[in-house]
Amino acid sequence: MGRVLCIANQKGGVGKTTTAVNLAAALAAAGRKTLLIDLDPQCNATSAIGGEPTPRHPLVQRTPLRDAVTATEIAGLELLPGSRSFHDVDHLATAGGGESRLVADHLAASLSVYDAVLVDCPPSLGTLTETALATADEVVMPLECEYFAMEGLTQMIELVKRVMTRRNSRLQLGGILLTKHDPHLELTHEVEREVREFFGEAVFQTVIPRDVALAEAPSHGQSIFQYDCRSRGARAYIEVCQEVLSP
């Protein structure tokens, strides 16, 4: 089975879905057969690459992934769309330990055909995120370069550590990715300095710039590479992809 990367942060608006979509697109462009899984009930990852949310979530119905994934306009990238069904969201979000394990096992059993799987998690520390972490090899945590960026990060790391201690867990910290980076702001440099001093090599060398193209691309149902392949955001996600693929 290929690598399963969980893109997670309990704080909203940090570039989590942007990272999931564009890193998935970059991996596909690099020749990796890639699957993007939308676990966020907002279904932003689904719409960001031109997909449509499903009436019922495949993970609730135990639908085989081969019957539930859809093609995208990006060569090599498939999508397991999310669902806005209140029933399904509630079912996944309140599942007990045994039920959560069944969902994780069902998901893991269907991923062997992919070189890379990226899971876009909801902005929470709930069962959906925990289920995704239980399935993943690595967790990537986008972190916005603003004052409150590190608030709650300790809780997220504690959840990651808890999942890591479970039997048969493969989970490792894939890295912390600094997003919405504005080199003209002193605050950006302060946040980056503090994060790198505290987390060291766990922080990606590449930073994601504050780029209007990254904000505009989802409204067109496109990745940044389809929307503006020459933008600063596109270059940054290519460099992140290179870091992910480097030994």
Automatic annotation (TrEMBL):
Residues 3-172 form the AAA domain. Keywords: Hydrolase. Transmembrane segments: none annotated. Its EC number is 3.6.-.-. GO terms for molecular function: hydrolase activity. It holds the Pfam family AAA_31. This is Soj-like protein. It is an enzyme of class 3 (hydrolase). The keyword Hydrolase applies. InterPro entries: AAA_dom, DNA_Partitioning_ATPase, P-loop_NTPase. PANTHER family: P-LOOP CONTAINING NUCLEOSIDE TRIPHOSPHATE HYDROLASE, PARA FAMILY PROTEIN CT_582. SUPFAM superfamilies: P-loop containing nucleoside triphosphate hydrolases. It comes from Botrimarina colliarenosi.
